[in-house]
Amino acid sequence: MVNRKELIPESSPQAAYGAHVRRLREARGWNQEDLATRMGYSSQHISAVETGRKPPTLPFSRKADAVFGTAAGDESLEHKWREIRHGSLLEGFPEYVAHEGRAAEIRLYEVGIIPGLLQTPEYAAVLAANAVKRGAITPEQADERVALVADRQAALVRMPLPLVFVVLDESCIRRAIGDAAAMNAQLDRLVEFARQPNTVFQVAPFALGAHRPFDLPITVLTMADRSLMSYAESSHRGHLERESTSVLPMLTAYHQLQAESPSQATSVTMIEQLRKGTP
Q1: What whole-number distance in Å separates Cα of residue 56 and Cα of residue 14?
Q2: What is the pTM of this model?
Q3: Is 4 domain-assigned?
Q4: Potential cystine with 11: which of 15, 110, 191, 239 (Cβ 3.0-4.6 Å)?
Q5: Which positions of the chain have pLDDT values less than 50?
Q6: 35, 67 contact by CB (below 8 A)
Q7: What is the rounded CA–CA span in Å between residue 238 and residue 232?
């Protein structure tokens, strides 16, 4: 008889993940070989994940969700994987990222910094390094944040391509992050983003004044089934809103912001002038 290792879910997030996999498996009356066959992994791999000896991966989590039928809801293994991977992030943000990677349309407005979907690795690294200096996160968590930027951007390179609408407050392009070379590379990245066939890019100038409908960053997602959700952050957590009665006014306000902001061509010209150091 194979020895059954007792799990202590409270010992670490990875142990809690493994215990959850075991609980889902045993609830269906499967042994580790049964689950391994269904998932296309070895039984040794299943055992290592369940006992916390091997960290779970995103492909493993998605395959397990497909086998267990837990792709949505509190039992989702992908959601639990993101909690492990992005433990240093604001509460609620990993859940948002999972939806972002599946959205058909993404509309975002940002203030102060370039949003993650448009950041260069160097820009992201400077932000993470400064968070380490402030004692807000560890160096390991800083590496995770930079990796997440790359993961989010890679998730958008899929077919069909999602439509991505971006409006940046002028403060985003005028606030220097890193040295001149890093900032110039970031501005070049914005121009490159604007040239993509599935993007619309605008800069909301300071002169917009009271016509600006948002004081804080906001994101509105349109999913493949045309359902809507919005995401916004406070200083303590992120909040994902799915009720259409709350999201629709935000979508309307976003359209108003786009109408009040300069065109993409004018916005790109503004960035190119800033890149060259001209007024």
Answers
A1: 8
A2: 0.68
A3: no
A4: 15
A5: 1-2, 88
A6: yes
A7: 6
